[in-house]
Specification:
The strands form four sheets. The chain has a seven-stranded parallel sheet with strand order 3-2-1-4-5-6-11, with helices on both faces. The chain is globular and about 55 Å long. It starts with a helix and ends with a helix. It has twelve helices and 13 strands. The longest helix has 25 residues. It has 345 residues and is an alpha/beta fold. Helix 7 links the parallel strand 5 and strand 6.
Amino acid sequence: MSAYEKVKAQLKAGPKRWLVTGAAGFIGSHLTEELLRLGQQVVGLDNLATGYRSNLESVRGAVGDHAWKNFKFLEGDICDPQSCVQAANGVHAVLHQAALGSVPRSIEEPLASHATNVTGFINVLAAARDVRARFVFASSSSVYGDSPALPKVEDTIGDLLSPYAATKLIGETYSWVFARCYGMEAVGLRYFNVFGPRQDPNGAYAAVIPRWIDDLLQNRTVTINGDGETSRDFCYIANVVQANILAATASNPASLNRPYNIGLGEQTTLNQLYRTLRSEISPDAADPVYQDFRAGDVRHSRADISRAENLLGYSPTVSVPEGLRLTVDSYRAKMRRITSSIGTS
């Protein structure tokens, strides 16, 4: 039995109360779904700026009304300290996912990124401290900056390339300081290009996988930034959910108050990614159009996940090809539902 299977059995036997910030977002909604499946009580906090009630409705449909009764949603902003205090009341663990994502957005709107990702972060951190809750938070592989070393190892970072990266590293720093000053238990998860169902394909700051899936399903030409040889460690959402729950339940003191890489430990170029998606969705689709490299982007990224494997018991179970198939299937199903609702309206 894997470490994660053991933890799930323990949680089912002894339910806890959890706070998920950003619960209506992509990652937050999947965390909420898994916790509810495990019989946990979940409080979700979201201001719905980048999250959607439809994601929560999808969770409800997936877990059923019986489990859904264990979920309480609070519409509020992490930039409001009182909202954080209210949401954290009585919780055992906080899974902090709420953030203003996107490197390009942070370059265009650094003050907004700072307000949510730093000030809002500290508000949630302080609320977790006050109730003595374990604090697990979403950091980012962007903190490695321009370091050329591969794979990325937690203790070696370079010069940061964007305000977004700076906000994530500041959050890590505050967490370790709070741990020293207040005896908190904190774990930072440096995500490497998470993808999966419910990831928003729309808008100027949409991530590459949902945007390309939507383009191919809609018979639009895909645009690639740079020459397509930029590479990333793409990680399916189920692996990230596993990492969060393992971090929130880890009992080894040596596993606490440190960051972990959460990825697959593999590299996929944008050209490889496009070929895989085109083969899966539309083999006759046109070749992509290449444009300038995007400011603030690193050239290559791959995670060393040995720390997470050794200290958390992390063991990713979904590969990139399998994850892409599952993701494409989910977007196709969503398109069918939309088409059906239009046809019957």
